[in-house]
Amino acid sequence: MDNENGYKFNVGQKVKVKEKEKILAILDDFNQQDGYLFMDQMWRYCGKSYRVIKTVKNVFDEKGVKIYKVKASAYILKNIICDGKVDGEENICDHSCYFIWHQDWLQAE
Amino acid sequence: MEGLIMHCQLTNLKKVMKPHSALENISQKKIQKVWHIKKKIKVLKNKVITYPKESQNAKENKKQLPLPGQIVRIKSKKEIKKILDEYDSTGGCVFAPEMFQYCEKSLTVYKIVNQFYDEVKEKFCKCKNIVLLDGALCSGQRKMLPADCDRNCFFFWHISWLEIL
């Protein structure tokens, strides 16, 4: 049952990342769902449980200096951060962004 | 690195954004204008009212780079203001108002930043003397915006704002 504004999970709640096959079935040909990209390094978290530390409702566009609502419910999970190895080992980005997880990639524990 | 095409959640972020309604567009444009004006006023104010500078070349001074896992102390607000330029930055690294809450606290270095995707310039950029600190995350709160940003980004810290313990 969804909370207000369609968010199933609450901050502090433990959730499980769905199995790879289930997530693959709902991604498009570009490994995206509602614009959320499922990066290669995110597969290692499938089947494991993590705590929700934030519900993602709005994101700030630094270049345009504008705030936008997101298209679909999403979350940030504790300690799951991009390692920056987007282009192999040669050019590693140190931005260390927290991954944003689409609600449909997660299930209640 | 020139011409490197990054494909990650950050470069893809625009796709998760819901397009603005006409009313939201008008409101956001007003916010943009106010933001730019406030920024210009702040820069002018900083040029006129300045703290006595310790060293104009603070950013050039050779400083030891703290390593991941090391504990650092964030300098006091007064000490940091002495080394910020009129754009509230050191070596191009901006000190956001929210970062002052960490002054005089001790935090652990999470990572050294050598290069990162700059979403304003929309390209991969190299940098030096910048670190990320464990737990020092942007809350996304900005007074002038109608909502908080939920991206939960790490703040970038210039090493001249820190002391290794």
Structural account:
The complex is a heterodimer of chains A (109) and B (165). Chain A is mainly beta. Helix content of chain A is 6%, strand content 35%. Chain A is built from 1 helix and 7 strands, in the order βαββββββ. Chain A has one helix spanning 20-26; strands at 14-17, 32-33, 36-37, 49-61, 66-77, 101-102, 106-108. In chain A, the strands form 2 sheets. In chain A, strands 6-5-4-1-7 form a 5-stranded antiparallel β-sheet, with no helix packed on it. A two-stranded antiparallel ribbon of chain A has the order 2-3. In chain A, β2 and β3 (36-37) form a beta hairpin. Chain A is globular and about 35 Å long. The two termini of chain A are 14 Å apart. The model of chain A has no long low-confidence stretch (mean pLDDT 93). With 165 residues, chain B is of the alpha+beta class. Helix content of chain B is 21%, strand content 22%. Chain B has helices at residues 22-48, 77-83; strands at residues 71-74, 89-90, 93-94, 106-118, 123-133, 157-158, 162-164. In chain B, a hairpin with a 2-residue loop joins β2 and β3 (93-94). The longest helix of chain B is centred in the N-terminal third of the chain and has 27 residues, at 22-48. The A-B interface holds A 32, 34-37, 39, 53-72, 74, 76, 82, 84, 86-87, 91-100 and B 1, 4-10, 12-18, 20, 28, 31-32, 35-36, 110-117, 119-120, 122, 124, 132, 140, 142, 145-154.
